[in-house]
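Re: [help] complex structure
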Amino acid sequence: MTLTRDSLLAQIKIILQEQFDIEPDDVNLDSRLREDLDIDSIDAVNLMIELKSLTSKKISLENFHQVKTMSDMLDAVLAFLQQDKA
Amino acid sequence: MKLTSDQERLLSQETLITVPFFDVDSMNIVWHGHYCKYLEVARCNLLDKIGYNYRDMKNSGFMFPVVDMQIKYVQPLLFEQQLRIVATLVEWECRLDIRYKIFDALDNRVLTKASTAQAAVNASTQQMQFACPAILIQQVNNLLEKS
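Output below.
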């Protein structure tokens, strides 16, 4: 399955709703994970585990500490998948 | 990851415990706060089976603090009751997640369902990791190859 930026955002919105009761309409590219969405580091690992089942790949984002916004997250996940493919 | 029944068996470990007097309240029922100690005993046995116990974690430069725990108290645990705790590893790539079921060892009734999540923390930087150390993943893969 090839993930585009848009389809990944849509999938993440579904996960955020299911896992953390975050309304999809409240999530946009500029949403700050910690301040706006109240996602802590433990939640972030939950998200990673969900993404893993979505992409059938272990998403290992060692630089996740630098991810501040939803846009950063999409960049990081897509970069990881791209690099994994190469 | 969905485990096959063979894999689940390989990633599970049973522990037998008899409820001691010092854990029960005035109704002869285990006080809810003591359950996590039984889970810890079961978890240590499972980690020994996997070949990555707390000592191995320390030697590899990581700590695995519990960051989340859920316990469903389906039936009470009673003084002197013999318990069979089955601990199963369900996630080991991003985090160490374990599910538990506590059964009555004599009649096999399910008494408790629980889960814990442990995050890898680099001991020297104290920073939480978003992926488990390779040594843990390797130990689990070695175990799974036996299926």
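The interface with chain B takes residues 41-42, 44-45, 48-49, 52-53, 58-62, 64-65 of chain A (CB under 8 Å).
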